[in-house]
């Protein structure tokens, strides 16, 4: 692709900015352009439930981490545009090493993924050589390469139960999901001390106060939330689990303890019901919890990354080969 002066300047600042900062012509119909380009390039747009509503609506597939991995594993597209955070794009690249994978903003990271630094994780692993390492998908490709099986919140219980009872387990990097799984499965796992900044930001006192004002509302929570919050939840599950729950449950109102982007899908699936985001410690403008990493993605950046096929996700070849096996194990176990 031959770049003009503005495009070349933006490309030189890509790493610093995280995306191609190229002005979009005023009046450009971004939605129509995305639709045209994805057809022309045989691209697939995958989006997580934590993306803004406009991105979810234009995606070919919107889902949770498991569904997105399954889609990435089976896609016939030539170009994968991943509207999510960096580890999600990396997972798609690990599954499709010969395809181009782009994300709207390289700086869309994840506090959980950052909590597992590869050297420290290697040392932890080596200190417990007899342990099976189950790693939550919210981690870097390097950490995946050091893992035995990957899991997501949707299949974590099943993955833990797939390990023979006489095998000790390391679970990383989310300590809250780990503690929840210890309770659910009765397995005494060794936990890594990572956490999600969004799910740890929910304030239990404010939540209980809110519930007093809405006594018939059910509290639904993602298992990345802290134990005291999970204890008061009427339902605990992955983002897909939560959406299915509100669709099929008989209540009319829910307090939702996960990233607020999910409310868009909940309202689409159950428009007659009402959803209140769980309150966080900090009072922000919308009184809800948004993942600052996920929110780096915008429709403009989505258009730019599809148009210029940049920023691209790269994974070292040796790491890709090692990281693929634990992801494949997860996909295999999830089939049954
Ligand atoms: P799921 O997509 O598995 O529900 O997890 C949510 C999440 O934390 C994504 O970052
Ligand atoms: Fe990571 Fe939490 Fe954001 Fe998910 S919501 S991407 S776990 S920081």
TrEMBL record:
- Which pathway does the protein contribute to? Cofactor biosynthesis; NAD(+) biosynthesis; quinolinate from iminoaspartate: step 1/1
- MF terms per GO, please? 4 iron, 4 sulfur cluster binding; metal ion binding; quinolinate synthetase A activity
Q: Which residues bind [4Fe-4S] cluster?
A: 110, 196, 291
**Enzyme class of the recorded protein, top EC level:** transferase
Its signal peptide is: none
Catalytic reaction annotation = iminosuccinate + dihydroxyacetone phosphate = quinolinate + phosphate + 2 H2O + H(+)
State the protein's name.
Answer: Quinolinate synthase
